[in-house]
Recover the amino acids of this structure.
């Protein structure tokens, strides 16, 4: 059992969890992920590592509510326990002296950028980080990334903060301005990673993306997470999650990620319905007493 | 039936003429609507009647047919005397997992294949009897915790909790060592838990074995991926005196044909893990979903294929196909499972191999193009090699495909353990007498050494390894002492 020692809302439907996982926090490296299971009936869901504190044995993950499991995890409280925290899984991000690195994060892909930016910076790279969201209120981890990088650039789709546009608007401008970039790493929603890769293809900039296909075991045993990279089938959980972005078949991955939408909707609707009834009952209870 | 007051002695001839007692089981139409175990099991009366069929050969062949040489006539005699618990313990002297082996061993190729009755009659139902006594022992709460010898102060790490790991752990604990199991998944049992379905091996049977280990003082750490959290070398740094690697053959093989990554195409490991370990059959009570369409094609002819196709029927498939590139005769599955699959309405396409999958715009598989095969000369495995018949292609409509064409070994441990020798298939190379690898102190057994094999072979390897690990940590040289070896074996349980 793994205790939640701190839980905090970052923005609508997105929570940060600090989880005590003594051994894991000492072993994990930037770019790896964990698999969480809430309870005995629970699904195994992969979550990126958004921060590591080896000294205190604490692991940070940031969870966005997109379905039943993420919703029920986001209802957990400080002091509650996850049944399982498995990891560290996946191959750590490739950290070497590249020169100028641009780290790009979108949505819940922003937190896992932090340890990567930190590691790249620590060994002497120049690190520019670009993060983006739909609107200012949904931007997370700004302060954390400002500390982790030399330079932080921000975009919002609606222009409410930073550059008006997408992370690729900023990236394209950097390239157009003749800025020298040795390596790009992007983590975020598939359309964002796809756009980043499209931007860096022409100028031939080495671009890593961190893939998040559906997983079950996370140890290479099931093949649920297979993705096509460079025409070959790879298992994202053990061969990745980072791959050469220019080689990834994003269209196939997008389709594969929709495999269970019908079931997911059913489970999520049921969860929200149950919750609604519970809350309604709780609200009614005191009224009854007064009557 | 046996006459209770004063059994008459039957002659050998009379014994041989008793027909084999069939296993009572759920009707096919009922069982495809549930996940309950198919056979109900022998009653004590049936077991005693079946035991009467054994003619107690002076030189029993069945013993040598069993990979771990269970003293079969001895336990059968105890059944005929009504001493069911004694019979279970007799088996446990050599096989720690009778409740499991009685259900999943390919008896028709092992003990029962060489039973003398096989020539003229049907063999004694050794597997059914084994299953019966193990169940009897478990259900009558007579599981005996042996008195443990004083602690040796030695600590042994067992990586993986399949039949190999469970056996090593049980044996070493009974020799007074501290044993800690590290298992990657959240439930111990290996294939017995995530692969073999409930209708063939109830989870409670496996859980009982794990409970027994805990009673012996074995610690079980789940969700612990060795090679990621700690490497094998780091386990040694944590003061383990020896490490046993029983990580199985968990890497699913695909056929590398067009369209294999379409939605609806599963590896058997994923399909069975979702259904068994994650209890997807109980979705949405359990959170993990599984997709089973109307037409389900399962590729392969082994136990894994039979388990997959029978699971799909229970999850609502209207047509469950087995697509196998050789003929019926070459299918490696247990006869009983093939038989059960047939009874349940599984349709077999023999001498057929898929060449590609066809999908729709949303990326879902809709059809499978196959080619007919014929059998040529025997290949390295001794089975006749299937050869495609040019121009015989045809298409089967499918919504779900399960690829059950075997597993390879997971490279995680070899890759993270410098100096650990593997062969060209990635299996760990060991000395067969000791199961010790190229790295002193690191032992291995089960599917990670043999490639996908059987439960009893994995358990047998565990027995051999346990004896050698004991010597290794106690500083007893491996070779010389034949005497000692025998002593150890009898002290076992
Ligand atoms: C390596 C990796 C790192 C990830 N990191 C994060 C993270 O830091 N924060 C975060 O909020 N999310 C992260 N995800 C995604 C997260 O795992 C899914 O959002 C979560 O599993 C959804 O579960 P659900 O029941 O709430 O939603 P569901 O309703 O089940 O599904 C919603 C969508 O989530 C995806 N999904 C569903 N099940 C899985 C699964 N078992 N594995 C992966 N994706 C699935 C599917 O595309 C699906 O359409 C990561 C995924 C991977 C593979
Ligand atoms: C579906 C199916 C049906 C089968 N049916 C039969 C049958 O009817 N009869 C029969 O005799 N045989 C059958 N077999 C074969 C039999 O199950 C195997 O031969 C046997 O389980 C092998 O045992 P093992 O202990 O070597 O490994 P496994 O049972 O594979 O167990 C290995 C364990 O190690 C764990 N592990 C792997 N890597 C790590 C790591 N790095 N760290 C920690 N833990 C790790 C795995 O999670 C797993 O739990 C079947 C196999 C399958 C897949
Ligand atoms: S362990 Fe398997 S082979 Fe040996 S007696 Fe039992 S059923 Fe037969
Ligand atoms: S999640 Fe099962 S192999 Fe990657």
């Amino acid at each position: 059992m793994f205790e939640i020692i701190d839980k905090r809302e970052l923005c609508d439907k997105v929570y940060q969890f600090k989880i005590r996982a003594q051994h894991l926090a000492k072993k994990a490296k930037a770019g790896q992920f964990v698999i969480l299971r809430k309870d005995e009936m629970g699904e195994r869901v992969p979550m990126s590592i958004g921060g590591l504190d080896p000294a205190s044995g604490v692991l940070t993950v940031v969870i966005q509510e997109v379905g039943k499991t993420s919703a029920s995890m986001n209802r957990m409280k400080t002091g509650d326990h996850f049944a399982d925290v498995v990891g560290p899984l996946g191959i750590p991000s490739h950290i070497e002296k590249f020169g100028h690195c641009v780290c790009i994060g979108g949505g819940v892909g922003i937190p896992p950028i932090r340890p990567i930016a930190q590691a790249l910076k620590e060994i002497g790279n120049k690190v520019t980080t670009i993060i983006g969201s739909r609107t200012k209120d949904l931007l997370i981890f700004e302060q954390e990334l400002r500390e982790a990088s030399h330079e932080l650039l921000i975009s919002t789709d609606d222009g409410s903060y930073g550059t008006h546009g997408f992370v690729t608007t900023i990236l394209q401008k950097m390239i157009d301005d003749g800025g020298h970039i040795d390596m790009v790493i992007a983590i975020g929603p598939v359309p964002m990673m796809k756009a980043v890769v499209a931007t860096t293809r022409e100028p031939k900039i080495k671009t890593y993306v961190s893939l998040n296909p559906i997983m079950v075991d996370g140890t290479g045993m099931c093949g649920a997470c297979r993705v096509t990279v460079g025409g070959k089938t790879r298992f994202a959980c053990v061969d990745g999650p980072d791959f050469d972005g220019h080689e990834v078949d994003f269209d196939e991955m997008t389709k594969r990620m929709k495999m269970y939408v019908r079931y997911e909707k059913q489970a999520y609707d049921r969860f929200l319905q149950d919750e609604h009834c519970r809350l309604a009952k709780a609200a009614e209870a005191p009224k009854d007493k007064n009557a | 039936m046996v006459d209770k007051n004063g059994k008459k002695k039957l002659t050998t001839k009379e014994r041989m003429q008793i027909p084999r007692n069939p296993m009572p089981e759920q009707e096919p139409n009922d069982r495809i609507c549930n996940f309950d175990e198919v056979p109900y099991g022998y009653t004590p009366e049936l077991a005693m009647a079946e035991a009467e069929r054994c003619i107690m050969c002076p030189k029993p062949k069945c013993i040598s047919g069993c990979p771990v040489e269970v003293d079969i006539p001895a336990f059968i005699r105890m059944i005929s005397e009504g001493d069911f618990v004694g019979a279970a313990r007799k088996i446990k002297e050599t096989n720690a997992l009778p409740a499991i082996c009685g259900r999943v061993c390919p008896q028709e190729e092992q003990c029962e294949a060489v039973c003398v009755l096989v020539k003229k009659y049907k063999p004694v139902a050794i597997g059914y009897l084994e299953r019966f006594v193990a169940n009897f022992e478990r259900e009558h709460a007579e599981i005996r915790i042996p008195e443990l010898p004083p602690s040796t102060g030695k600590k042994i790490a067992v990586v993986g909790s399949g039949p190999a790991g469970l056996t090593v752990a049980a044996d070493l604990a009974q020799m007074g060592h501290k044993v800690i199991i590290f298992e990657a998944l959240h439930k111990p049992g290996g294939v017995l838990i995530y692969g073999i379905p409930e209708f063939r091996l109830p989870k409670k049977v496996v859980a009982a074995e794990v409970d027994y280990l805990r009673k012996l003082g074995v610690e079980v750490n789940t969700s612990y991926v060795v090679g990621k959290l700690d490497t094998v070398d780091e386990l040694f740094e944590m003061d383990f005196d020896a490490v046993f690697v029983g990580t199985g053959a968990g890497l699913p093989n695909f056929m590398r044909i067009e369209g294999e990554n379409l939605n609806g195409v599963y590896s058997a490991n994923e399909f069975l893990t979702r259904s068994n370990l994650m209890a997807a059959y109980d979705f949405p009570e359990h959170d993990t979903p599984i997709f089973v369409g109307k037409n389900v094609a399962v590729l392969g002819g082994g136990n894994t294929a039979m388990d997959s196709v029978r699971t799909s029927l229970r999850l609502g498939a209207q047509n469950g196909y087995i697509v196998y590139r050789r003929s019926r005769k070459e299918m490696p599955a247990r006869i009983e499972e093939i038989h059960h699959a047939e009874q349940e309405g599984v349709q077999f396409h023999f001498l057929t191999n898929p060449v590609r999958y066809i999908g729709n715009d949303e990326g879902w598989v809709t059809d499978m193009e196959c080619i007919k095969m014929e059998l040529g000369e025997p290949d390295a495995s001794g089975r006749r090699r299937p050869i495609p018949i040019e121009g015989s292609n045809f298409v089967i409509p499918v919504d779900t495909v399960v690829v059950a064409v075997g597993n390879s070994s997971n490279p995680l441990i070899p890759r993270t353990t410098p100096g650990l020798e593997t062969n060209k298939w990635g299996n760990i190379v060991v000395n067969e007498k000791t199961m010790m690898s190229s790295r002193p102190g690191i032992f291995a057994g089960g599917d990670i050494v043999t490639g996908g094999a059987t439960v009893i072979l994995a358990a047998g390897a565990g027995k051999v390894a346990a004896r050698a690990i004991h010597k290794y940590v106690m500083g007893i040289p491996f070779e010389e002492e034949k005497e000692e070896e025998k002593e150890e074996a009898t002290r076992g349980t």
User: Anything to note?
Assistant: Chain A is about 30% helix and 30% strand.
